[in-house]
Specification:
307 residues, alpha+beta, Jelly Rolls, 2 domains, seven-stranded mixed beta barrel, six-stranded antiparallel β-sheet, 5 helices, 14% helix, 31% strand
């Protein structure tokens, strides 16, 4: 019988993700995939998997999992508070960004993220998940992906692939960025906004609101004045687009974004700062900084080298 995790608590927005499902946006299917690519990759590196192997993503509070079967090497990445509960009832404080071995009957209790939104759990050999169009990523709104396109539920079983019996502990020291500066390049409708509003966008702080999920992040701050039109013909949009609807408050599109949209876009988050952005929790303040394409490409090369 295959080893598996039994879900005793599902947590908040716990889904399976990989690097994403691409080349389907023309059919209205968002790429989805992990929110924080760097931490996702770290979770797999901790247990010796390929960086593209599917992992469990959770937000704020994660699941409570019980292992049934052979021992397994597990890695939890991010700024996470969690416990390992041994079969005999002993409770061990978990260490993030460090692999550990659990035995049959042991539990992993992901209590919370710390000053961040997302964390990841990977297991050596990976989870036994069905791919849809080449990806296991779960897009809940469209019911696409592994686990029947849905979040985890209490009582479900997560089957594991063949487990590598050899265990070599790994620990990765991370220096995660804490500043609130988010770099952007100009959006297609940058000139739709008044000079004063463009200055406000780059000089004033914006607050992350509770209306934030895998689809988008709503901000609150200085109202931006559109001097051309608050609507445009619907056109293709991408992750990181900063849309400005009629109320003048920015919306940043995230991994589960719609594939087309009709709001003007003042800017787009550069790839190198996307992971930092999505880890901002409601109430956090951010400031935007304009960079040109050359700087964005240089930042991307540095970002890739982190992996």
């Amino acid at each position: 019988m295959s080893s598996y995790f039994k879900i005793l608590r599902a947590g908040i927005n716990s889904t399976f993700q990989d690097l994403g499902r691409f080349q389907l946006q023309h059919l209205g299917v968002a790429p989805s995939g992990c929110m924080d690519k760097f931490l996702f990759s770290i979770s797999n590196k901790l247990v010796g998997n390929k960086s593209s192997e599917g992992a469990l993503e959770f937000a704020y509070q994660g699941p409570l999992l019980e292992l049934v079967g052979e021992s397994a090497s597990v890695g939890v990445s991010g700024k996470i508070k969690f416990n390992i509960i041994k079969k005999n009832g002993e409770i061990i404080n978990g260490e993030s960004n460090e692999s550990f071995l659990i035995q049959n009957g042991d539990k992993i209790d992901i209590l919370s993220t710390i000053d961040s939104a997302y964390g990841y759990l990977a297991v050596s050999g990976g989870f036994k998940l069905q791919k849809v169009n080449g990806s296991i990523s779960t897009l809940v709104r469209a019911r696409i992906g592994s686990n029947d396109g849905d979040k985890l539920k209490i009582g479900e079983k997560i089957l594991l692939n063949n487990i590598n019996s050899s265990f070599t502990p790994k620990k990765i020291k991370l220096d995660l960025e804490k500043d609130n500066i988010i770099r952007v390049i100009k959006g297609l409708q940058f000139n739709y906004f008044s000079n004063n509003s463009r200055e406000d966008f780059f000089s004033k702080e914006y607050k992350v609101t509770r209306l934030t999920d895998r689809m988008g992040m709503r901000l609150e701050g200085e109202k931006l004045e559109n001097i051309v039109s608050t609507n445009i013909k619907s056109e293709g949009i991408i992750k990181g687009s900063v849309q400005i609807p009629g109320d003048g408050q920015p919306i940043i599109l995230l991994s589960d974004h719609p594939t087309i949209g009709g709001y003007p876009k003042i800017a787009n988050i550069i790839t190198a700062d996307y992971d930092k952005l999505v880890q901002k929790t409601p109430g956090s303040k951010i400031k935007f900084k304009m960079v040109d394409l050359t700087i964005a490409e240089s930042a991307f090369r540095q970002y890739v080298r982190k992996f």
